[in-house]
Design goal:
heterodimer; A: 19 helices; B: about 500 residues; mainly alpha; two-stranded antiparallel sheet; 22 helices
Chain lengths: ~500, ~500
């Protein structure tokens, strides 16, 4: 198949999977079979696409235009391919995990759950492969709408409230600010919204005031990037079942947000215009503020998922900060963070889910000594924590290193200190959890017994162990990864990445 | 498709499409009053609206064909234009005629079960008679090229509308009050309009709109013309429910029979708005309206006020029909805002939204009609749990609702984009912020209804699934799917709107 057709296949497969799930709704085993087979096929398609991209091709697909200047085009470049790989690859892991979790928990409406999941992947892949801002916006909204039923899945009052906040915040920011920015860009660029290497708006003689306003609209309008103060939807969305939190609120949805920020920075603004925009410094400051404050808030949370949610907010701000550094190392650091954080945070969430399924415990204070009973889960948690903190040999260390490099190159000397402070805070709020679970201090009360015989279902343990291993593997794959991303983020970054150890 | 139609119809239809378009429903209307059976009246109405739609498509085809020069002019009774009545179709009103035809046909098809349920049986035929008169009046307003004739048709449609609204009394007595209110307001509007036309006649000595337009440039600075302009704008603004002249609308929409609400919301205000545009851009030139009379400064605040204030009011309503009625006034605000930009891009955005909004509100009110038919109540609480008991109706309602918000992949989203482009292009970035703010309010007022429909348990649990009858579902889904189709491919409506805007500005093609 030609790369162009592969794009079409990658878009159609999730839809076909959704139809298949709906058709097989009455037979749970067939239904899950459809999900698993479909997601493996999808990963195959995405890998083939990524190979084509690494060979220097740019798969391109035009589905016609909605109105003059607004066309549905798809164009895959390395950063998008990376995001697509992350989303579709982790979907397989998550599917296995979901099966274990949803059955273990006896959740209702499972067919609707899997259908919405397939639609969410459709949206995420659309975002990843979009060739212009219009297409990206459309799929961004598909992602929002398809995940709303997932957040409100439980259907009780808390779930409905969380779902409502989720929908209103994301729709409100995207329609209120992002859409405004999109229309403004469209007008400025002369009815054009294509992603252009070097920046669509570059060389258009845009005044600093206008570019600052645009940047602010984009940065806060892309609510999925969870930059403060539009971050509050994320902790509220934690009412969702854990697989949703794991895949969507650690990988697909939030990564779609920061990915959009990256895309806008690189392909709409471009390095030069971004550097000439005074608002860039401000957004960088907001990102740093978000990193520190969200980490501090995370320390106060006893509910494990809430703590992870705030940790996610802080980690997402790394990517925004990387984009706002507006140089090659910053872009590279942000891009690596997308992949590294996905693997790490997904592990943490899946561990939280496994603990919940096995024991019903959601609070950290009740987890002391639990590691003796569920060693694999807490070891996976430990490894992923190290990756989030940024200790080699875990993938997260590269992202931090590149970001610091970018900050120093760009003359923002305070950013490395923020990152170091963030690492210290990460240590403080993440490491005690596995350490106290695995090595409880003498005299701690006995942890609660398993509520289900045999503890966590095997699938919910295997999945986090796998992604934890991924955190380590990604560390050693950094050279190829940097080479792969070079066409998007700039070639000189590759040399930095391969030459020096952090 | 239109070419096929043009080549297949006989010669007389091509030559006389313009008068036939109005005459068929107008002549059938009094005959229907004599028909004893409501069912026959319904079928005849379907035939009449279908015929009108065919003639409208023929006219559109002729206007679009290169040899016509973009204008179809028909002299009634062979009295040549400045003296006799002229029917004049160009890209602008061809679009409106097709809209009225399509909505009229779909509305008539779906009407029968709801009319049976909501109007007293012996009045069914009379009801259809009044409806056809109203329909003919609207077509007449859209097609005529004569200012006084426009007044006549405006009154034909208005008076029959008062009757139609009042017939809702068998369901809710407040319909009588609403109809009376509408009667007073509508008559004031029509009076203002005719006074304005009188002033223009005094100044120019002619009633033909093209002729008035050709004589006005010589009368620059004339107080008579300016007074006439003011009267006409207020009169037509009242009919178009331009804020703050919209007070009649929420009541009229809430208490009239559901079918009437659906038909009026999708056509009546649209036609009045068309007449306003016709006067602003053709009779008075854009230069006069927007430069000398500084009209932008008047229209723009009114459009914005409608958009924001009425969206707020919609948020606080408890009756679904009132929510949608206030939202209609707000949407008229978007159109007025687009028009007030005074550029071709702005006008085309306004007209584009006019088309899209007709589809959106048509579908929404049709779904409401279905709910009224099967479940009676129209309170938001009555809608609770309907997503389970009437999934088809409510899915269509949800699609149209999302389109009203302006969610991507729906027609409403495309209108917002075009409007935003026109506003940014003119440097009105603050107006864009207000537009998106108003969209956000739409998220809330539509979201409240959708949440009740899909996430709340029904008030009195209904054991059976009770969908609307098929004659209702089919037109409803045609409109709902049109919302999606025109959200993905806007070639047809945007092309129509751009042609119309180009015609309004006297351009060769849209720029």
């Amino acid at each position: 198949m030609s790369p162009d057709m592969l794009i079409l296949a990658a878009l159609c497969l999730p839809l076909l999977i959704a139809i298949g799930i709906a058709a097989a709704g009455r037979f749970p085993n067939v239904r899950e079979g459809v999900t698993v087979v479909g997601s493996v096929l999808l990963l195959g398609v995405v890998i083939a696409l990524a190979m084509a991209v690494s060979n220097g091709e740019t798969p391109y697909l035009d589905l016609g235009s909605a109105a003059p200047g607004l066309s549905f085009t798809f164009k895959l470049e390395p950063l998008g391919a990376l995001f697509a790989l992350v989303a579709s690859g982790l979907w397989i892991v998550n599917s296995f995990y979901s099966i274990g979790y949803m059955r273990g928990n006896r959740e209702r409406n499972q067919t609707r759950f899997y259908i919405c999941f397939a639609f969410a992947i459709f949206g995420a892949l659309g975002v990843a492969m979009s060739g212009n801002l219009f297409t990206l916006f459309v799929f961004y909204e598909v992602l929002t709408l398809s995940t709303y039923p997932l957040v409100a899945h439980k259907g009780d009052a808390a779930a409905k409230r969380g779902g409502r906040i989720y929908l209103l915040t994301l729709l409100g920011t995207s329609i209120g600010l992002f859409l405004t920015a999109l229309m403004w860009t469209w007008t400025l660029a002369g009815q054009n919204l294509d992603f252009v290497q070097g920046g669509l708006l570059a060389g258009l003689n845009i005044s600093p005031a206008v570019s600052t306003a645009l940047l602010l609209l984009f940065a806060f309008g892309i609510g999925k990037a969870a930059l403060m103060p539009v971050h509050f939807w994320l902790p509220n969305a934690m009412v969702a079942p854990t697989p949703v939190s794991a895949l969507l609120h650690a990988v697909a949805v939030v990564k779609a947000g920061v990915f959009t920020v990256m895309k806008v920075s690189i392909f709409i603004f471009g390095e030069e215009l971004l550097n000439a925009t005074p608002g860039r410094e401000f957004i960088l400051g907001v990102a740093c503020f978000t990193i520190i404050v969200a980490s501090l808030v995370a320390m106060t949370k006893d509910n494990l998922k809430a703590r992870l949610a705030y940790s996610t907010i802080a980690q997402l701000a790394y990517v925004t900060a990387g984009a706002m550094l507006a140089n090659e190392a910053g872009f590279l650091g942000g891009s690596i963070q997308i992949a590294a954080h996905a693997a790490g945070k997904m592990t943490l969430f899946m561990c939280a889910g496994a603990i919940y399924v096995a024991t019903g415990v959601t609070n950290i204070s009740q987890m002391r000594g639990l590691g003796r009973r569920m060693p694999m889960v807490f070891i996976a948690f430990f490894i992923a924590s190290l990756s989030i903190i940024g200790i080699p040999p875990m993938a997260g260390s590269w992202a931090k290193y590149e970001l610091m490099q970018g900050a120093i190159n760009g003359g923002n000397a305070y950013v490395p200190w923020v990152l170091i402070g963030s690492s210290l805070l990460n240590i403080a709020y993440l490491l005690p959890i596995p350490i106290l679970a695995l090595m409880p201090p003498p005299g701690s009360p006995e942890p609660r017994p398993f509520k289900r015989p045999g503890g966590a279902p095997a699938l919910t343990v295997a999945a986090p162990v796998f992604t934890a291993a991924l955190c380590i593997i990604l560390f050693f794959l950094i050279g190829p990864l940097a080479d792969f991303l070079a066409p998007t983020v700039g070639s000189s970054a590759a040399a930095i990445a391969t030459g020096v150890q952090p | 498709m239109i070419e096929m139609l043009l080549s297949s119809v006989p010669q007389w239809a091509l030559a006389h499409a313009a008068p036939l378009l109005v005459m068929v429903p107008l002549m059938l209307a009094p005959l229907l009053a004599l028909v004893p059976s409501g069912r026959v009246a319904w079928l005849v109405s379907i035939a009449a609206t279908a015929a009108t739609l065919v003639f409208a498509l023929i006219l559109l085809g002729i206007v679009q064909s290169p040899e016509s020069g973009g204008i179809v002019s028909y002299a009634m009774g062979n009295w040549l234009p400045p003296l006799g009545i002229e029917l004049r179709v160009d890209a602008l009103n061809a679009m409106i005629l097709v809209l009225v035809g399509v909505i009229g046909l779909l509305a008539t098809i779906m009407s029968y079960p709801t009319v049976l349920a909501e109007v007293r049986k012996e009045k069914t035929a009379l009801f259809y008679s009044a409806f056809l008169a109203c329909f003919a009046g609207l077509c007449g307003v859209a097609i005529t090229g004569d200012a006084f004739n426009l007044f006549v048709f405006l009154e034909i449609s208005s008076i029959s509308t008062y009757v139609l609204v009042a017939l809702g009394a068998s369901r809710d007595r407040r319909a009588l009050h609403a109809a009376f209110n509408y009667l007073i307001m509508g008559t004031i509007g029509a009076t203002f309009f005719i006074i304005g036309v009188g002033f223009l006649y005094a100044a120019t000595g002619t009633l033909n709109m093209a002729d008035i337009a050709s004589k006005l440039p010589a009368l620059q600075g004339s107080r008579t013309v300016q007074a006439g302009f003011a009267f006409i704008v207020v009169g037509l603004g009242l009919k178009a429910a331009m804020w703050p002249l919209h007070q009649w609308l929420p009541n009229a929409y809430s208490y009239s029979p559901s079918f009437v609400t659906m038909f009026l919301s999708a056509t009546a205000t649209k036609v009045a708005l068309y007449a306003l545009i016709r006067f602003l851009f053709f009779v008075f030139s854009p230069t006069f309206a927007f430069e000398h009379a500084a009209f932008t400064a008047l229209l723009m605040p009114l459009g914005i006020a409608a958009m924001v204030a009425c969206s707020f009011q919609a948020v606080f309503q408890t009756d679904v029909r009132r929510v949608l009625a206030y939202s209609s006034v707000a949407q008229v605000g978007y159109m007025i805002l687009g028009v007030s930009v005074g550029t071709a891009a702005g006008l085309s955005a306004g007209l584009f939204h006019l088309l899209n909004h007709a589809m959106i509100k048509g579908a929404l009110f049709m779904a409401v009609a279905a709910v009224v038919l099967t479940y009676k109540g129209t309170n938001i609480r009555d809608f609770a749990g309907l997503g389970r008991s009437a999934p088809w109706t409510m899915t269509a309602f949800a699609i149209a609702g999302l389109s009203l918000i302006g969610v991507p992949l729906t027609a409403g989203f495309q209108s917002k984009l075009q409007l935003g482009y026109a506003l940014f292009d003119n440097g009105w970035w603050w107006a864009v912020i207000l537009v998106v703010f108003s969209s956000f309010l739409a998220v809330i007022y539509v979201g409240r209804i959708l949440e009740a429909v899909f996430f709340q348990p029904p008030v009195n649990p209904r054991k059976t699934r009770k969908e609307a009858p098929i004659v209702l579902l089919v037109p409803l889904w045609i409109l709902a799917l049109a919302n999606i189709y025109f959200g993905i491919s806007t070639d047809i409506p945007l092309g129509l709107a751009r042609d119309a805007a180009a015609a309004a500005f006297g351009l060769e093609a849209f720029r």
